Amino acid sequence: MRIMGIGGGAREHAIAWKLGLSDHKPEIFWIAENRNPGIHKICRDNQGELRTGRTTDAKTIVRSARGWGIDMVVVGPEEPGFHGIPDALEKEGIHCIGATQELSVIERSKADLRRLQWENNLPGKLLFRTFKNAREASDYIRKNIESQPWLQNIVIKPARQSGGKGVKLIEDRQVYLHDEKERFKEAYFDSLQASMAAYSDIEDKILVEEKAWGPEYSLQCFTDGKTVLGTPLVQDNKSAHEFDSGPETGGMGSISGPDMTLPFITREEYDKSLKIVEGIVESIQKKTGKSYHGMVGGQMMLTENEGPTVIEMYSRLGDPEALNMLAMLKTDIIDIFQAIVERQLSKLKLEFTSEDAVVVKVVAPNGYPEKRDKAKGHPVQVLETNIKRNGCYLFWGNADLHEDGQVITGGSRLLALMGTDHTLPPASARIEKTMSSVQLADGWGLYHRSDIGSQQLLAKRQDVAERVRPLYTYREEHGILGSRMGWVPRVGRIDPSHLMLQETHGPEKA
Ligand code: GLY
Questions:
Q1: What atom of ligand 1 comes closest to residue 251's alpha carbon?
Q2: pLDDT category of residue 510 using cuts at 50, 70 and 90
Q3: Is residue 324 part of a domain?
Q4: Which residues sit with their C-beta closer than 6 Å to ligand 1?
Q5: Taking the model in full, what pTM does it have?
């Protein structure tokens, strides 16, 4: 069997690793924008090759797949799905594990995802409103902040998935009410507008959303359109620096295990989260009339108002979350992909190790995420034998293997180190012990988060969960889960849900 992967990050290196371990002994081919050293080696060791090319260009992908005689393609990142690569492959009769263009809208447009949730009255949603540009959003908030209390505590995001770029929180309502803060606000809105300028594939550019607070976790699933199979929960850590400080990144590391849940999420919360993801898959299939086959995930948060709540959806596996899940996966990955293609996922029993906790730490060059040009172009030195001797695994990310054998940084997340142990803190410590095995030869700095998987950070997550859980379970017991009744002076009690119906159906029908 000949299989081809798309994408050149650590998630794709981990997918290639599992393909290389399959009993089906596939020949492994790959298309990526960078020559990822790990994927390059796996392809070479499995009678295939890694070719560089644009992963969003259907012609390049289809031509390579046909040329190589590929039986099945697996898509790693989200952008190929957004650009219709699975659609193009399937038109050629090549099986593809990956959400098609229409279905991947659950990730591409955060506005369409929220509309889908409200239209179908699915649990785990947030109050929201969309705008064509940042200025329109700013004016609306200023005018309505007194009459719509939920606008007092909001997050303003690019409405399109943009790889974590541009997401900022404006939690201070004074920003909208006082002129002296105007300049700060204007600068922020300008940067938001600029981050969205590159995208012409969605109409709503800006999403204003109720701010939620609680512990976050990702639930990644496989689906053949009929069955959605959940995998172990993983928690990604998005902030660049220790204890959740610094700018938002694509993810600086993740934890999972030793079983299906996390130490701060219950089995019941897992089951509710899975139902939410199932509801979204079912609703988007109903809306488009298309069958979803591939990977799907909920980036979830336990919130006071809703319990398990969707922050964003993945139309793919998470990066770095995929590394944790694939490390725990015992079922042959090709058996899963074949069951997806044959729509037989209900007959497959997914098995995961329950003995090991898994910690992943991302290593990035200084400058990432805000000054990527400075983070780019540095020669990398890695002592792979030391990493192995410490029982850790290396997954290459945004790195480029040059003809002379030198690996060069690409400006984004360079690589991920993975450690396993019976519990999370020793797995984290194992990675710390081998961290000095990765350096840049020109002396440019690298950074990572030492706190991921540590007892202190776990205690912090547990504390947040223990504060949120009694609040949402109280609401559940009193039949008011999901209700957001607010009080407006001189108006009285208001239920903002009717505004959500206006947002989803238009004012005349609400
Ligand atoms: N872990 C963040 C992402 O995959 O988008």
A1: 1
A2: very low
A3: yes
A4: 236, 250-251, 318-319, 321
A5: 0.94
